[in-house]
Amino acid sequence: xxxxxxxxxxxxxxxxxxxxxxxxxxxxxxxxxxxxxxxxxxxxxxxxxxxxxxxxxxxxxxxxxxxxxxxxxxxxxxxxxxxxxxxxxxxxxxxxxxxxxxxxxxxxxxxxxxxxxxxxxxxxxxxxxxxxxxxxxxxxxxxxxxxxxxxxxxxxxxxxxxxxxxxxxxxxxxxxxxxxxxxxxxxxxxxxxxxxxxxxxxxxxxxxxxxxxxxxxxxxxx
Length: 222
Prior knowledge:
Number of strands: 5
Shape: globular
Largest sheet: 5 strands, parallel
Distance between the termini: 19 Å
Helix content: 55-70%
Radius of gyration: 17 Å
Structural class: alpha/beta
Strand order of the largest sheet: 2-3-1-4-5
Strand content: 5-15%
């Protein structure tokens, strides 16, 4: 059975995590083996990089991470993930679902940090051999709604676990407006790969849309 590589994209608070779990459960109920991973993270090295990149206390102990250093760490994580998790799982015929991939770097570092799309795409060609997903689900509800949900979620996480992953959520509205616009540009440019869901519908309705998309691509009954 041939493997299939699906990535989920969107701003924090877009509902990715919930929809990834629901899609994985649906695919497993259809007899498909599913491997879940994430960028940054997913591997032992990746989880260490994730801690550096996302914890808001990082810069208090290490100093400010420059945009290009941030980008380099993101791609170090991604290259390890592809080699250690994604390619072997696909070779075994699994469906790989990854929470974020290079589109996130194009949105956050290319758009938000203003490094430009060309810089990110060149890095992807060099470091990741231009390895692309078969399908990308881009959840892009209105910007204000996403940010409000993301900040509430990280406050809960900090209270429950004593750690946070809100280094990016502390950025200003201009940063997120640029990231949002970059995601829209990616969807327009790569419409053969990226399916944009930009409404703020209920979790169940979004799930139905995603299942219909994936079922069609895989030739499965919805």
